[in-house]
Amino acid sequence: MHMQNYSLVSEFVLHGLCTSRHLQNFFFIFFVGICVAIMLGNLLILVTVISDPRLHSSPMYFLLGNLSFLDMWLASFATPKMIRDFLSDRKLISFGGCMAQIFFLHFTGGAEIVLLVSMAYDRYVAICKPLHYMTLMSWQTCIRLVLASWVTGFVHSISQVAFTVNLPYCGPNEVDSFFCDLPLVIKLACMDTYVLGIIMISDSGLLSLSCFLLLLISYTVILLTVRQRAAGSASKALSTCSAHITVVTLFFGPCIFIYMWPFSRFSVDKLLSVFYIIFTPLLNPIIYTLRNEEMKAAMKNCKTGRARWLKPILNTVKFYNQLHLYM
Hints:
Strand content: under 5%
Radius of gyration: 23 Å
Helix content: over 70%
Mean pLDDT: 78
Shape: globular
Largest sheet: 3 strands, mixed
CATH topology: Rhopdopsin 7-helix transmembrane proteins
Number of domains: 1
Strand order of the largest sheet: 2-1-3
């Protein structure tokens, strides 16, 4: 394709979230705290799942650990740049950096979509086919599901970037967002990209919508099955599924809205992007830990084990401090 030869734009100008200096100072402090909470919260889940033998041998928690890992990636590709831009008058990003943001957004987003479907399948087998659970959700199956999520995310992302990077960018370079969003970047190309944009962006919208409908159907089957079970098991299964349904709704809602109507931009789109990229990775660890007794118990065990590990060191320090007083 010869269009790449006419790409003269070497950087893009991001409009950011707002223009008020006072709001930008407030958002800087606020989102620094949010970013730290995302990393620590998801890292806590990862460490807990890895350190507890019961959890990392469980398919559900193995998938949850991978979800936390993807959430950390999802919050890393644009959030640090947005936080730094709050202190800058001109919010610039290079052409390569812009394409990298598009790649990582669709890579982590596509992988997380497939992983959420895998988690729904895990709950379906556990509740609807409990006698065959260990066979259907073997260790090899879990590895395949995680690999499938990563491969799907990579293929989906590379297909988006391959077309976007070859478009001719020779004029406008202002992106009305705090990161390079695919619908907004495509509109800056010096050619009619309406049909191409519909095809590319509908790929993301239809992928999100179809997976969301599939998840709704699977959870409907699960909930109908739960109604026929004993009260104790039904209560536990309902608690787990309600947490999954909450995460699915929070993740897919903004994504579907943004990519199903890509060329009808509203001011609310920025808020949805913030929620999708920043708040969803923060809410996932909160939802899965506060509503999960096994996870909370494992975290307490990790805390106890860490305290037991530190106790000899603290006793040694205390001994030397007392020895110093007598010298």
